[in-house]
Structure formats: C-alpha cells, structure tokens
Design a protein that fits this description.
single chain, 321 residues, alpha/beta, Rossmann fold, DNA polymerase, domain 1, 2 domains, seven-stranded mixed sheet, 7 strands
Length: 321
C-alpha cells in the first residue's frame, strides 16, 4: 500500500531563492503545512538563524513535531495560530522585525485526502472544511445559516461561478427539506446546475468557494499582507504563492502599490511610492517537470517583493501616503 504524502510543496526552490536567505537571518513561514518550505529554509540558515513557522491546524504542528528534522531543530519555533495575527505572535516570540516572510496559500494534500476534513468532493465525508478544528463555523453551518443572497455571493466571488444564483437557490430549497451535512448530499443538490463538460472544475470551484468563506481566507490574507509590510526589515523579502485569481490579484496589487486596492501613488517626479520593490513583473509558475511530478502545483503563482530602505519610506510619509 502506497502512503500518501502529507504535502508536496509547490515552487520550493524558487520560493527559497526568492527569500535571499541570510544564514543569520530571522524568517517566517506563514503556512507550515507538511513542513517542506520550512525544512528548506532551515537548510539554508546558519546556527544563528531563526525560523518561526505558523499553522492554525494542530495536525500540521503535530506532524512537524514528529519529524526529527523539524521538531528537534532549536532554530525553529512552531506557532499554532492563524497568520492573520502575525505581528502579535512575532512580538510574543521576540522577533518583531524579520528578514523574510513566505506564505504558500495552497491547501495541504492531507486536507484534500482526509475524508473526515470535508475539503474534497471526491469523498463521502462530512462538510467541515475548517483549517482550525476549534473554529465554530464549519461548511455545514455556513450552508445552513447563509441567506440565498449571501450564498450566491460566496459562490460568485470565491468560486467565480456564473451560475452562482441558480446553485444558491437550489441549496436553500434543498436545506428547507433536509439539512445538508455531507459531500454526497451537496453534490446531489448542485450537480443539475453544473456544466457536465466541466464537472470536475466547477465542483472544485464550489468547494473552493465554501472553504474560503468558512476560513475567512481573503480577510486573513489582507491582514497578513499589511502586517508583513510592518514586520519586514528594510531589504527583507515577502514571497507569496497563490492558487486562484482573487488571491493573486490582492498580492500583485499590494506588492506593486503598497495598498490592497491597487491605487498607485506617485511623488512629484512620478516615482512609485510603494514600500516594496516588485521583483516579479510576472508571477513565477511551475515548469512542466514540476507539474508532471505534482499536478496540484499547476495553478501556483509566486510573487515576490523587497521592502525598500528607510529613505524611501520617509519619502512616502512626507507625501502623506
């Protein structure tokens, strides 16, 4: 019997290179997952270096602790918490300013492949989808409590489904007769409104939308980006791997302009007032070899920015940005 890997990290070498790791630096892995990126950072750190790795899922923390290459490394601090509270945790652990921050926003294989977590339409499991199992609201609760309009918005904004209103109406009608608590129940409700020629893609979009809403992922990403800018030292790098257009657009706008809306401010001389120097005019994507080895990496996009020096920051402040 073949054992499924906990997770295979996407764009591993490219993201590590992007961080420009200093042997004595302090780094943050916002998304520990299976520990692939964290392990790669540790290999490039010297004895004086330090890494703080975050995950809100206790399964990931336990997995890392059981790995001798991670759990026994004195340079590594495992943080059981959501990266949306980055600054608070960094202060708590005495690392208020850091040299690099990495976030891989993909879902771990472990989540997709565990029927009990409810992340995939392939399994006959409960509709859970919580990254943090201590959170109150799971997908079952979301489906039960959302209005038809709210559900349609979730499916349209986070799943980019054109037929979002029809699917939402079908869900609301079905739940009035019986609670929708499992993946098979949900599939029976939504499949009549799915394009059969794109069935797998659109089913994945439905489950993606629900997962993003359950875990409040977009708001968490917004908070991470703004806090990362504050936490990085001048010259520090922010590297973010995204998997769908909504995430990618946020990251691109923030690194290019320094704000979440993408409003580009310039000084008197026409120079961009963003606190970052964008190092990737186009996102870095997996090559054909990586996609063949790891098909789940196919939609990964890596964007990287370097925080500018204090002189640039002072110029921004003088202009009221």
């Amino acid at each position: 019997m073949t054992t499924q890997p906990y997770h295979i990290p996407a764009l591993l070498g490219q993201s590590l290179d992007a961080l420009n790791i200093k042997p004595s630096g302090i780094y943050v892995d916002c998304t520990l997952g299976g520990g692939g990126h964290s392990g790669g950072v540790l290999k490039r750190l010297g004895e004086e270096g330090r890494l703080l790795s975050f995950d809100q899922d206790m399964d990931a923390i336990a997995h890392a602790r059981s790995n001798p290459q991670l759990g026994e490394d004195p340079r590594l601090t495992l943080v059981h918490g959501n990266f949306r509270y980055l600054r608070n945790f960094l202060r708590y652990y005495g690392a208020e300013h850091v040299d690099g921050i990495l976030a891989d926003l993909g879902v771990s294989f472990h989540h997709f492949d565990d029927p009990g977590r409810g992340f995939s339409f392939r399994w006959e499991g409960p509709l859970d989808m919580r990254m943090n199992r201590d959170a109150r609201r799971d997908a079952t609760t979301l489906i039960a409590e959302s209005s038809e309009t709210e559900m349609a918005d979730i499916l349209y904004l986070y799943g980019e489904l054109r037929q979002s209103r029809k699917i939402a109406a079908a869900i609301v009608k079905a739940r009035s007769k019986e609670a929708i608590t499992t993946a098979p129940q949900l599939l029976n409700v939504i499949k009549p409104h799915i394009n059969p020629r794109q069935e797998k893609k659109e089913l994945a979009q439905v489950f993606q939308a629900l997962r993003i809403a359950v875990n409040n992922e977009i708001e968490a990403l917004k908070q991470l980006l703004t806090q990362a800018c504050e936490a990085l030292k001048p010259g520090g790098r922010l590297a973010v791997i995204t998997y769908h257009s909504l995430e990618d657009r946020l990251v691109k706008n923030f690194l290019k302009t320094g704000n979440l809306e993408g409003h580009e401010a310039k000084d008197f001389f026409g120079r961009n007032l963003s606190p970052f120097r964008l190092l990737t005019s186009k996102p870095i994507v997996p090559d054909a070899g990586e996609v063949e080895r790891n098909p789940r990496s196919r939609s990964a996009k890596l964007r990287v920015g370097e925080k500018l020096t204090p002189d640039n920051e002072n110029r921004m402040q003088q202009k009221g940005i």
